[in-house]
């Protein structure tokens, strides 16, 4: 209980701080990086290595290597995604006053998403389907299209609606929504043992964030972030 209260306070502080200090173009910030993670911004072809504190904008593509991941938090409502190893995703997001309309496109790999107090729209799209948030947390597995394996959405908390042009299915806790391909309607079943790996386990760590104030002076502020167990 005490841990949850501390985490909630830190999340609120994080949202306020990031909203006031990050540039107008930024929609998210990288909280933690492990291994090899690269970023391609917009239409640029040059890849750059991202690290803790990197700002993300609309159109940024994240690519993780083997045994690597990146934890990313959106600035409007502290919604979190973890891009797991050997994954590629694109941040599609636009600002609308104090909200960020978010669509994370998972091209391939595995993504964990947790929505806190939703302020702007949050969707996860894949080559076969789109998941719209109605609740809190999910894990998405998107295999390479050439493998002919289905897209899997695993329900951890709350509810999500998974849909494509062929139909839709509601994702609940303890269930998995299967999407065979973009022309076949999603359907739900019970999650099988071993399909998820405890993506929701979190602890609080310290994170130093460097920024520039209105006087052009550089400052460092420390606050809590999520720590991988």
Number of domains: 1
**CATH top level label:** Mainly Beta
**Looking at CATH, which topology would you report?**
Jelly Rolls
Helical fraction: under 10%
Q: What is the string of helix and strand elements?
A: HEEEEEEEEEEEEEEEEEEE
Oligomeric nature of the chains:
single chain
Beta-strand proportion: over 45%
**In angstroms, what is the radius of gyration?**
17 Å
Judging by the overall fold, what is the CATH architecture?
Sandwich
Give the topology.
Layout: H1 2-21, E1 28-34, E2 37-40, E3 48-49, E4 55-56, E5 61-64, E6 69-74, E7 80-83, E8 88-96, E9 99-114, E10 122-125, E11 130-133, E12 137-142, E13 151-157, E14 160-164, E15 167-171, E16 175-179, E17 187-190, E18 203-212, E19 218-227
Parallel strand pairs: 9-10
Antiparallel strand pairs: 1-4, 1-6, 2-3, 2-5, 5-8, 6-7, 7-9, 8-9, 9-12, 10-11, 11-14, 12-13, 13-16, 14-15, 16-17, 18-19
Describe the structure concisely for a colleague.
By secondary structure, the chain is mainly beta.
What can you tell me about this protein's structure?
This protein has 229 residues and is mainly beta. It has a single domain, classed as Jelly Rolls, CATH 2.60.120. Helix content is 9%, strand content 50%. The protein is built from one helix and 19 strands. The strands form two sheets. The protein has a 17-stranded mixed sheet that branches. β18 (203-212) and β19 (218-227) form a beta hairpin.
